[in-house]
Amino acid sequence: METKKIEEKWQKYWGEHKTFKAETGSSKEPYYILVEFPYPSGSGLHVGHVRSYTAQDAMARMMRMQGKNVLFPMGFDAFGAPAEQYAIKNHIHPKDAVKENIKTFKNQMKTLGFSFDWDREFSTTDPEYYKWTQWQFLEFYKHGMAYKATVPVNWCPNCKTVLSNEDSAGGVCERCGTQVVQKEKSQWMLRMSDYAEDLLQGLNDTNFAEKVKLGQINWIGKSIGAEVIFKIAGHDENFSVFTTRCDTLFGATYCVLAPEHKLVDIITTKEHKDEVEKYKYECTLKNDLERTELNKEKTGVFTGAYAINPVNNEEIPIYISDYVLASYGTGAIMAVPAHDERDFEFATKFNIPIIQVIDSGQSELTEAYTGDGVHINSGFLNGLNKEDGISAMLEFLEENKCGKKQVNYKMRDWIFSRQRFWGEPIPMIYCESCGWQLMNEEDLPLLLPDVAEYEPTDTGESPLAKITDWVNTTCPKCGGPAKRETDTMPNWAGSSWYFLRFMDPHNTHEFASMEAMKYWNKVNWYNGGMEHTARHLLYARFWVQFLYNIGLVPNKEMIWTRVSHGMVLGSDGQKMSKSKGNVINPDDIVKEYGADTLRCYELFMGDYELDCPWSTDSLKGCKRFLDRVIRLKDKVVEGDSYTPELETIIHKTIKKVEYDLRHMGYNTAISALMILTNSYEAKDSVTEADYRVLLTLLNPVAPHITEELNAQLGYAPICEGEWPKYDEEKTIDKEKEIGVQVNGKIRASIKVSIDESEEVTKDKALNEENVKKHIEGKEIVKIIVLKGRIVNIVVK
RNA sequence: GCCCGAGUGGUGGAAUGGUAGACGCGGCGGACUCAAAAUCCGUUGGUAGCAAUACCAUGUCGGUUCAAGUCCGACCUCGGGCACCA
Asked: Which value, in Å, is the radius of gyration of the alpha carbons in chain A?
């Protein structure tokens, strides 16, 4: 039978028999394997998707055979700009575009034989799904976690939308690369910063890969320091600064406020007013990119005001400068030019005194800030080291009520509004007399209107704003005329809780029942791209922790292990892209070589966690391997036990494949199966038992062809059977070749048997001709014999 | 600048501190064929040698160890992320 027919036959079988249906509440041990659901983009499934789906599919298939109740779901994350832009470009409604693309994706996934439980499929754009995303937003609001604020936002003039800090990293729009500008806008925000510490601590309840944890930690950006309050000479006003090195306070020779700081206008003296105004205006013209690019040359102006250093009552000038960020800490700093590079640069330029307060024993002044040293010129801190200096200073600050210990986080609140059509409408209503009102739960979902115009507006309003029928409504409180919120949610919203919905996807009265969530407990294994391990994961964890705190999910962390895969690059080693012409379409590969070959190659190509270039030649090698497995069938003779000479390698291979599939060692698992196949080929015949164990071990990787070969021998489907067991004892070779070293250099190799004594091994080693040659005339200092591993003869 | 990750044959990559280069690709030689494809057999890190074998070899330089790709210390290169975060 030809490959295509075989694949279709088994795909049909799995579909009809619902082989991969996950039963909530089953007495089997639940095991939840999740792989990031894709954007159904117009270009179809990427070979990179295939790599991770195949990997998790192989794991899922093995786990099922090992008796686990595996939940391996798939869905689509179809809101967001890519889907919207595709729709605009092709002049169809996003809804229809998404429908079409999902169909393509799903068909592609089916032809690859992934064992998803399709009964649980959904898209984030399904009203039955986004109803609950909206419902959860209302919960955020009810618990004071959602609020509206006018904030300077990152605005992409090309996409005509607000971008999150995350979406505009580096000052350019992540999507289109346009320079982002600052714009004041009223936005819905989620109080994510309240969860900074919990999100940090929660990592201890996860088994995330170390680099994933680090990504989260860096993003949260905790720093421990102090808040120091500075009085302003001749004013009642004061301001506080955040510092991690309050022990250097004696070295503070000036202060800097961010240009946006609210005290600037109040404290600026008449003589400096013009200059300050001018500088502030210049700053509004600069976007983040320009601000950071100008980091070589410090700018700023003096306000004319002086702050009083609380440790010595000295008056120090207050400057404004854009090297101080309004959004971090208190938006103000104390500057210690002797020990901070930036302050040093600024002080040098403006001729501000530089007082060294730490003797690091090094000539480079700025070195001391990161290192340790003894305090000098620091009054009561003199002679103390960094650690003691900090505690002594904290004590002083608290006693004199001019400061206290303080923790700061880089992570800020989540800007939750987008001026786009294709997102979940935010279920809020504004009434002139009652203010912001929640929509009634029973009115959810708030559907997106069916209209023809959904292109973004030039004004920065959401396209929804133009649809007056939709916008105008009545106030749920007073019944008077009111308007709907026209912003939609960011596309991170729907993906922040989809893994919960998979646990109970058809629930019509809850987003998921507590019972179902308790049964599945946690996502055991979550696989995705490295590009999502910082933000998506953080948003999802935040969402879950909030739901946990209001009693709606059973665990504070709902994801146990997070791993990430490497990218599949073009054969030129570059990222695949249409413009480079190095894109491989999985459909073409399936057509020419078969799904099993593609699956096998994607796992065999290299270390799963690292990027790897595509090679069609290597792919052919995998085809050759599968063809050899097929041809091996001609050598099969009856027999329900393993061929004695093959027993050891079979047990070894079971152990190896099982271990590797659980630890992302996909390439070495396949290598082991190739070795097993090679050893079968060296035989004149193999038993059915020999052959079937190979088919079963290979089944997670190449499910179609192995099922077919197994069926041809007259057996029930592999996917309904059990995973073979190995006997540890039988994985050990009875006889082995080991190396003999003289002074650490290999000089010979000897055969040893498992039960021979050290003496026998030693004699064998010493009697090797080449060993004799190298120890002749020398004194033997000692002989190291490691049973079954190595002999090393140390001579002098 | 800071934080990750990676440097191993022509190539993708293997190696619980214990015979470096498994397995695959490619190359070379051969068989089959009128020929090609497919398949099969052999060979394949470098240098020297008919060979046995020797020396060199896991980015660089040191160190620990009977033994280092692996551990420690310094450095170099590439990839990714963050970046005036006080």
From this structure: 33
* Chain A residues 62-121 within 7 Å (CB) of strand B: none
Whether the beta carbon of A574 falls within 7 A of nucleic chain B: the reply is no
Distances (CA, A) of A454 to A91, A216, A391, A423, A756: 10, 36, 59, 11, 80
Q: Strand B within 7 Å of which CB atoms in A 324-383?
A: 324-325, 328-329, 331, 333, 340, 342
Q: Which nucleotide is nearest to A336 (CA to C1')?
A: B86
Rounded Cα distance between A202 and A544, Å, is 11
Query: pTM (2 decimals)?
Result: 0.93
Rounded to whole angstroms, the Cα distance separating A660 from A669 reads: 6
Q: Which two tokens stand for residue A594?
A: 């078969």
- Residue A628 near residue A603 (C-beta atoms within 8 A): no
A296 C-beta less than 7 Å away from strand B: no
Nucleic strand B under 7 Å from the C-beta of A201 = no
Instruction: Considering only residues 585-604 of chain A, list those whose CB is below 7 Å from strand B.
Output: 604
Q: What is the distance between the alpha carbons of residues A127 and A699, in angstroms, rounded to a whole number?
A: 38
Band of residue A366 on the pLDDT scale cut at 50, 70, 90? very low
Instruction: Provide the CA A343 to C1' B84 distance, Å, integer.
Output: 10
The Cα A262–Cα A109 span in angstroms is 55
pLDDT band at A634 (very low <50, low <70, confident <90, very high): very high
The model's pLDDT over A228-280, given as tens digits with 9 standing for 90+, comes to 999 999 999 899 999 999 999 999 999 999 998 999 999 999 999 999 999 99
Q: How many CB atoms lie within 10 A of CB A350?
A: 16
Environment class of A454 (CB within 10 Å of its CB; exposed 0-12, middle 13-18, buried 19+): buried
| CA of residue A328 to C1' of nucleotide B61, angstroms | 43
